[in-house]
Design goal:
alpha+beta; seven-stranded mixed sheet; six-stranded antiparallel sheet; 56% helix
Length: 1233
């Protein structure tokens, strides 16, 4: 390390633990450095001392200083020089951190670190999982497994597809060993998405032989049909993920789609590598989230999907009443979903999630009835969380809980499919069994709320297990014999450490400890033990061993979980505080001791007083709070009231769900001993059994590791917190894996297997130089000799021509194939142990490529000779065998059929005879008793029926008769009222008209009498005048015509007046009739409705209607029994007036008016003539009295309204010469006025 060298310096504080620096000067004791890139820090130099005894291959070792690699050029980056961390010149923590960070910002989220793949969550969608990319990795894996393809082509970069392809190719190799892919990381690091990508790739490879386009099912696409058509195994396996995520994933502060359970998905393949099915095993569902979740978090997705995505019909069906929420959204209104504020997810909405979940359920073959039952149960759990309690005083004077809202409990019981009363009992009463006696204890409000939450957790936990079982039933393979090997994918919770850690965090971290130990064994322990045992050149590497931590947690009898189980056995006497005290007494026995002897357990005095203890895990120190219901969570008992609730009077789904829960929680082994009842396991016991089973399964397989890293806690793209990333690299054991993978020998074979496998690579070496068999040879020395000859021959150029220039057929075949790389590699890359040969990856790949090269050439040559012989031999043998087999098979079928017929006939005969005797005896005995019983029963039944019939007939007759009489009376009364009203109106109108006409006629008669007298006087005066004779004669003639016209006018006026009166009367009658008919129609309609309903008591609306109707006097009891047809026939309202009759009268009135107008016109003409005569007489000095008298008579016979005032002589026109004439003129004027 000279001045000017760039190094990484470690900083305790700050977000960046490793900062790029430059050495400014060096002394034997220390280094002086300055930061690069930070102007503020670069101006302040700092120093680092030399470590005591710190020397490495690069030179001296200084405190917190590591050499930096030279920056990669653009060409190096394009060629993928940093794809694998092993290729780095300096390999340490800052180098790996820098390389991963640089690749992350370039969009390359995957990086190899030896056998481990690092995957950094980008928090955004990247085009890395398209159909084309998947197909490219599949083809590369296929060609690599067959040693085909272009060796000069650039290999594909690191990808999760590479890990999945490697596991599949190893599974299909000669050993046919099962594989497992272990995906680990913190919450939010992308484990769930990585699991789905791995499953997609494995199912695609497993279905490539049977499906046309398996790679079309890319992550994020919806390729599920409508559920009616049969889905392939691949599609069913992939569609199981949305269901498990809906029921087992939730939003946390770190991750929107965090898996709150662990799962191991095992994909089964047959001998041909075709996917046959899958099996899902789950671990430790976080049931405590049902009753409580922190602010900003959510409960399980299925609750929010149902509340926000349900239709209006489902809202009504599941009792989701929006009007009762007080303006809150349903997700915020319900207690189980609104504690954290019910935030929305960033990636997708809950409405879309429900549609995708339902579509997946249908694609899995679930019926609509089953889906509805599942959703009803989820809705029932939501309503169960809404139950509230209030206090009341018991008979003993104690406060006990009672349910405040009965409707909420009723809705919950209805949706869950359980008995309402038993549900109330389960919420408010605790049952204890002591020495066979049952004791009922009433709960207070606090304990009732705890019982409510415990019941909700029990139902949901059982429902989750049932969902997993249903998924397995759909995707499970049919026969275990078909499964040749499997590939498992483990997606399990990452290491957790919060401000308050409880039982769930202890189990989760215990799981990670066990998996880390398995990782250590695979990467470190087994490697070093094997190298030491074989006595090869190997530098021992220390690695962290966490077995003591596992013992602290699980070992009996002093382990943390073991002491927890012992405390649970004490029943009500056990509590969290007592358990914490026992832990401190066990691990901190000495006074003032705060750290255990193995340094894994610790607790300060302050922590001990608060019931807090700490465990030093591989990832760091975690403090657990004992008084967070450790015992209750570990027991996870189903209360006796809940057992009675689920086992009796419950729906089929609840019984089935409870059966699954009960099967998992009971210890079958304990149940089989001496007939004792099944012993219920604690959660820790169940978890340890599952974990041990998982570790054993992983150890039987070839593991592959994917370490998922979370770049930042804000879940934002292109943002990296280097300190958090450094912690995850340390916790995941990535650095140790890199060191071992770089320095170790991953390929190993025994001496005999190594020699037999690769001796064929030297076919030109004679038997004398290198034997073909290991008989009478020392294996290790022979392998050393073989390796020397191999390296010597590999350095020579390849020649296919013989000495005479000819080329053999085998060499011609070799010339046509792709030539492998030369067998040139350092001899130190191959180590020969006592019983095995250890090789690095490079030499092994070259030897394998040459072996495949020679095998392909030999196989091609042998196949060319053998195919013809095989086909000819196969044809002859097959023909002869087919004939022989057919003859033998036909004989076997005939004999078997004959023997079956014989046995069937004999057995049938014997059976029929025996059955006949039994049935005969039984029939005779039964017949006698049946006949006697029937006779008694029929007689009694007939008598009862006849009596009942008679009573019913009399009662019905009485009811119908009474109703008919009452309705008839009411109808007649109604008709009388209507007719009376109509007649009264007609009478009043006639009376009024008669009164008016009489006065007019009386006045006219007086005027006529007076005018007649005056006329007589005028005639007498005119007769005395002899000079007027001729004029009188003409006036008389005209007067006669006027009289005739006036008579006709008077008759026409009288007739016209009568017709007008008739028309007016008819119009009034018609209007009255219409109103009556309308009211009668309403009453009849009301009676019909009453008859059809058969009701005996009118509703308020009916009574209101009856008050406005003329039929309101009819009793309802009578009207309801009369048929509607009889009511219609009974209502007849007097004389009926039709519009046609009214139209005829109006036409007659029009005709009379026209005739009257014609007569008036003729009368006016006559008056004009009389006027002219009078004018002539006036000119002669003679007054025409006769004409005046006749005019007066005519005028007197006319009504005042019909006198034509234009023809009446005014006083200015008549010159009265006598008193008589003056009086005549006055009368005439009064008539005109």
């Amino acid at each position: 390390m000279e001045a000017g060298t760039q190094v990484w310096s470690y900083e305790e504080s700050g977000d960046d633990p490793w900062i790029l620096s430059e050495i400014t000067s060096r002394t034997p004791e220390s280094l002086t450095l300055k930061h690069i890139g930070d102007a503020a820090k670069s101006a302040q130099p700092f120093s680092r001392p030399l470590l005591q005894g710190g020397t490495t291959e690069e030179g001296l070792k200084y405190q917190g200083i590591e050499l930096a690699n030279a920056p990669l050029s653009d060409s190096d980056i394009a060629e993928g020089a940093d794809n694998d961390m092993i290729a780095l010149q300096h390999l340490h923590e800052p180098a790996i951190l820098h390389a991963v960070s640089e690749r992350y910002f370039r969009g390359e989220i995957y990086t190899w670190t030896g056998p481990v793949l690092i995957a950094v969550n980008p928090f955004q969608r990247l085009p890395l999982y398209t159909k084309e990319i998947l197909e490219s990795y599949r083809q590369e894996g296929l060609f690599r497994s067959q040693n085909l393809g272009d060796s000069t082509a650039k290999p594909l970069g690191p990808h999760v597809y590479s890990v999945a392809d490697r596991s599949y190719r190893q599974m299909m190799s000669e050993q046919r060993k099962s594989q497992s892919i272990l995906i680990s990381g913190e919450s939010g690091a992308g484990k769930t998405e990585t699991t789905k990508i791995v499953m997609l790739y494995l199912t695609t490879l497993g279905s490539a032989h049977t499906e046309s386009s398996p790679s079309e099912a890319i992550i994020g696409t919806d390729n599920v049909g409508n559920g009616d058509e049969k889905l392939s195994i691949m599609e069913r396996v992939l569609q199981s993920n949305p269901i498990l995520e809906a029921f087992g994933n939730a939003k946390t502060l770190r991750n929107d789609n965090s898996s709150r359970f662990g799962k191991f998905i095992e994909l089964g393949f047959n001998r041909a590598g075709i996917l046959q099915g899958a099996k899902v095993q789950t671990y430790l569902l976080e049931k405590v989230r049902i009753g409580y979740h922190a602010s900003g978090e959510r409960n399980y997705h299925i609750f929010y999907q149902l509340l926000r995505g349900a239709t209006e019909e489902q809202h009504s069906k599941y009792c989701f009443h929006d009007g009762l929420t007080g303006g809150l959204e349903l997700a915020n209104y319900f207690h189980l979903t609104g504690q954290g504020g019910a935030p929305q997810l960033r990636e997708f909405t809950d409405e879309e999630g429900l549609k995708y979940t339902l579509k997946s359920m249908r694609s899995m073959g679930w019926s609509e009835e089953k889906i509805d039952q599942v959703l009803s149960t989820i809705a029932g759990i939501l309503h169960l969380g809404q139950v509230k309690f209030e206090s009341k005083m018991s008979e003993g004077g104690q406060e006990i809980a009672q349910i405040a809202d009965e409707k909420t409990v009723a809705d919950a019981a209805k949706l869950l499919g359980v008995d309402l009363e038993k549900l109330k009992t389960a919420l408010t009463v605790r049952i204890m069994v002591t020495r066979g006696d049952e004791i009922r204890i009433d709960l207070d409000t606090k304990k009732a709320e705890d019982a409510r939450d415990a019941l909700a957790k029990t139902v949901y936990g059982a429902m989750f297990l049932w969902v997993v079982k249903e998924v397995n039933d759909c995707i499970m393979w049919e026969d275990d014999k078909d499964i040749r090997s499997s590939a498992g994918v483990l997606d399990i919770f990452g290491f957790e450490s919060f401000s308050i850690n409880s039982f769930e965090q202890l189990c989760i971290n215990f799981t990670n400890e066990a998996l880390q130990q398995q990782f250590n064994k695979f990467i470190f322990k087994l490697e070093q033990e094997e190298y030491e045992r074989e006595n090869i050149n190997w530098a021992f590497i220390e690695f962290p061993d966490n077995q003591d931590c596992l013992d602290t947690i699980q070992a009996r009898p002093k382990g943390i979980l073991a002491l927890l189980d012992d405390e649970c056995k004490l029943g009500q006497r056990g509590n969290d505080k007592s358990w914490a005290l026992k832990l401190n007494q066990t691990y901190l026995p000495n006074k003032n001791q705060e750290i255990s002897d193995n340094t894994r357990y610790s607790a300060t005095k302050m922590q001990q007083s608060k019931g807090i203890f700490s465990v030093r895990h591989f990832a760091g120190n975690v403090a657990y709070t004992a008084e967070t219901n450790f015992l209750e969570k570990n027991r996870d008992e189903i209360p006796l009231t809940a057992k009675s609730l689920f086992e009796e009077d419950s729906s089929d789904l609840i019984k089935e769900v409870y059966a699954v829960q009960k099967a998992q929680s009971e210890d079958d082994a304990g149940a089989s001993q001496a007939g004792k009842p099944a012993k219920q396991k604690t959660v820790s016991q169940q978890f340890k059994v599952q974990l041990n089973s998982l570790i054993e399964m992983i150890e039987k397989t070839d593991p592959h590791y994917i370490r998922c890293l979370k770049p930042n806690d804000a879940a934002k793209p292109l943002l990296m917190t280097r300190k958090r990333l450094t912690e995850q690299l340390r916790y995941g054991g990535v650095l140790e894996a890199v060191r071992v993978a770089r320095m170790g020998y991953p390929v190993r074979l025994d001496h005999e297997g190594f020699f037999k496998r690769y001796r064929m690579l030297l076919p030109s070496i004679s038997e004398g130089v290198l034997p073909w068999s290991m008989e009478d040879e020392e294996p290790q020395k022979l392998c050393v000799k073989f390796l020397d000859v191999l390296l010597e021959e590999g350095a020579k150029p390849v020649k296919y021509e013989n000495a005479d220039g000819s080329i053999s057929r085998a060499n011609k075949i070799r010339m046509t194939q792709r030539q492998p790389d030369p067998m040139v590699f350092p001899k130190t890359d191959v180590q020969l142990g006592l019983s095995k040969v250890f090789m690095r990856k490079g030499p092994h790949d070259r030897l394998e490529s040459h072996r495949v090269f020679h095998q392909n050439a030999s196989i091609t040559l042998i196949q060319s000779w053998m195919r013809g012989m095989q086909q000819e031999r196969r044809y002859l043998i097959s023909g002869d065998a087919a004939l022989t087999l057919e003859r033998w098979y036909r004989g076997c079928l005939g004999r078997a059929r004959w023997w079956r017929l014989r046995e069937a006939k004999a057995g049938l005969l014997l059976t029929n005879t025996f059955r006949m005797q039994i049935n005969r005896r039984t029939y005779n005995r039964s017949r006698r008793g049946t006949v006697r019983l029937q006779a008694q029963y029929r007689g009694r039944t007939v008598r009862k029926v006849n009596a009942a019939t008679k009573i019913q007939s009399v009662q019905r007759m009485h009811v119908c008769n009474s109703a008919y009489i009452k309705l008839k009376s009411a109808t007649i009364a109604l008709q009388c009222c209507v007719r009376r009203s109509m007649a009264k109106q007609v009478y009043d109108e006639i009376k009024k008209a008669q009164k008016d006409m009489g006065k007019i006629k009386e006045h006219n008669e007086k005027l006529k009498m007076e005018m007649a007298s005056l006329k007589a006087m005028l005639q007498a005066q005119a007769a005395s005048d002899a000079g007027k004779a001729e004029s009188e004669k003409a006036v008389a003639k005209k007067q006669k015509e006027i009289d005739i016209l006036e008579t006709r006018i008077a008759a026409l006026e009288a007739e016209l007046e009568q017709e007008k009166e008739n028309v007016k009367k008819l119009e009034n009658d018609l209007n009255v009739q219409k109103g009556n008919n309308q009211r009668l129609s309403q009453d009849l309609q009301f009676q019909k409705e009453m008859v059809s309903r058969g009701s005996t008591s009118p509703t308020p609306m009916q009574r209101k209607h009856s008050r406005g109707s003329s039929l309101s006097t009819v009793p309802q009891s009578r009207a309801s029994t009369v048929p509607a047809e009889k009511v219609v026939d009974a209502v007849v309202v007097g004389h009926t007036i039709t519009p046609e009759a009214l139209a005829q009268h109006r036409a007659e009135v029009a005709r009379l008016e026209e005739q009257l107008e014609e007569e008036r016109r003729m009368s006016r003409t006559a008056r004009i003539e009389v006027k002219n005569l009078r004018a002539a007489i006036a000119d002669k000095g003679v007054v025409d009295v006769t004409a005046s008298t006749e005019i007066s008579d005519n005028v007197s016979e006319m009504s005042g309204s019909e006198i034509d005032r234009s023809d009446v002589p005014v006083p200015s026109e008549v010159s009265p010469s006598t008193p008589i004439q003056m009086r005549y003129v006055q009368l005439l004027c009064s008539l005109c006025c």
